[in-house]
Amino acid sequence: MLSLSDVLDARDRVEEVARRTPLEYSHTFSELSGASVHLKLENFQRTGSFKIRGAMNRITTLSAAEKEAGVVTASAGNHAQGVALAATRAGVESKIVMPKYAPTSKIKATRRYGGEVVLHGIDYNEAQSKAREIEREEGRTYVHAFDDERVMAGQGTIGLEILEDCPEVETVIVPIGGGGLISGIATALKERDDGVRVVGVQAEGASSVADSLNKGSIQELDSVDTIADGIATRCVGERPFEVIRERVDEAVTVSDEETAVALTYLLERSKTLVEGAAAVALAALLFRKFDHDEGEVVVPVLSGGNIDLNTLTTVVMRGLVETGRYLKIRTILRDRPGALENLLEIVADLQANIYAIQHDRTSRDIAMSDTEVVLDLETRGEEHVEQLLSALREHGYEVDVLV
Ligand SMILES: Cc1ncc(COP(=O)(O)O)c(C=O)c1O
Questions:
Q1: Residue that terminates a domain, selected from 114, 142, 170
Q2: Are residues 221 and 159 in the same domain?
Q3: What is the mean pLDDT of residues 75-95?
């Protein structure tokens, strides 16, 4: 099983290219959660996520002949960029198989880091089969994203940094996809100080770990569905699972809505952009998915910041809805002059700002003497939403909340 000395050995190799990312105390999240929260900002890592650490440790420990033959991997996301940059820095050629429909921004970034991108298949599984074929045909080494001890050891260097920067740490919260990240971090932490608690977090729509731990063997999901694409994995790897069983204290899940709220708070209050897979760690704390004491020193690992703008827009909108900052309502008015004005007066009196308004007389669902109005509103939080809805209902409007 992975040991502390593997992680310590990885350190110099990782530091050749990876940044030592900051660990920052957060007043906002400490206040919101009651814990003493220090954020490990791995979203500021080179290539935008922690993946460069494991990739670097794997690639620099290849033999001269293996380096000469090059590496190959399959990834639709962060691992692609980590492997591309690590290989380039180690003077090794890399081929990265990405699904045909991988986001253009990720394909471009992988090329920019020096990887040769091969577009193949419609999803990760098809890309992976192609990468295995290239491995066999070209004699390249396959760099697994998580089921590899040197990759896990590289990711574990985050644990060493946390202990050095915050020796009083009591709980570390880590996202789980294939389990490489948490197994590395848990090994570094527990072997140094077994009093530190390690909590793993998965998305509800991709959560196999709690079940696997209960049953004592890896359980694979038939499908996954989450906005946290970096951790949308059907099961953890064998090597990570061995470590998780031994060294991870709890595995919890968060919903996509909770992830969206955490991500939106991070942007708004800490000016910190993370991707869904990273926001789950903070979401687990804010939504009390595990018990903690008042003032407990907690470190959520914000594992990456690579989120495309379309996804970000959707997630932030959901975050605003969940926190009562965006409201879409539908009501029916008599189709007569002044009816809309009366409605808008109530909205204006309560200082809700109107983003958009639809006024429709043609809907088949309403009487011919009526008109349907849909309002998109900017609101100030859940209390404000309640005030507005009560005021409208008190004035006799029937209101449906659409989002
Ligand atoms: C941003 C981010 N966080 C967390 C993870 C989970 O890491 P692991 O698959 O090693 O569990 C990933 C995996 O790709 C990721 O990209």
A1: 142
A2: yes
A3: 96
Report how far ligand 1's centroid is from the alpha carbon of 318 (Å).
22
CA 172 to ligand 1 centroid distance, Å: 15
Q: Are residues 41 and 66 in the same domain?
A: no
Number of domains in the chain: 3
Assess whether pLDDT exceeds 90 at residue 123: no
Asked whether residue 306 falls in the same domain as residue 371, the answer is no
- What is the pTM for the complete model shown? 0.92
Is the distance from the beta carbon of residue 263 to the nearest atom of ligand 1 less than 6 Å? no
pLDDT digits (tens, 9 = 90+) for 19-55: 999 999 999 999 999 999 999 999 999 999 999 999 9
Q: What is the pLDDT of residue 76?
A: 80
- Show the domain range for 86: 55-142
Residues written for the chain: 403
Q: How far apart are CA 191 and CA 4, in angstroms?
A: 6
**CA distances in angstroms from 274 to 113, 134, 192, listed in the order given:** 21, 33, 29
CATH number of the domain to which 79 belongs: 3.40.50.1100
82 lines ligand 1 (CB under 6 A): no
Q: State which of 79, 152, 231 you would mutate to test the pocket of ligand 1, scoring each by most atoms of that ligand within 8 A of its C-beta.
A: 231
Name the pLDDT band for 219 (thresholds 50, 70, 90): very high
Neighbours of 310 (CB within 10 A): 9
Give the position, in ligand 1's atom list, of the atom nearest the Cα of 182. 11
* CATH code of 384's domain: 3.30.70.260
User: Could you give the CA distance from residue 131 to residue 2 in angstroms, rounded to a whole number?
Assistant: 26
Give the residues across from 360 on adjacent strands. 372
Ligand 1 pocket residue status of 52, Cβ below 6 Å: no
The pair of three-digit structure tokens given for residue 137, joined into one six-digit string:
């045909």
Would you say the CB of residue 259 lies under 6 angstroms from ligand 1? no
The residue from 304, 320, 336 where one domain ends is 320
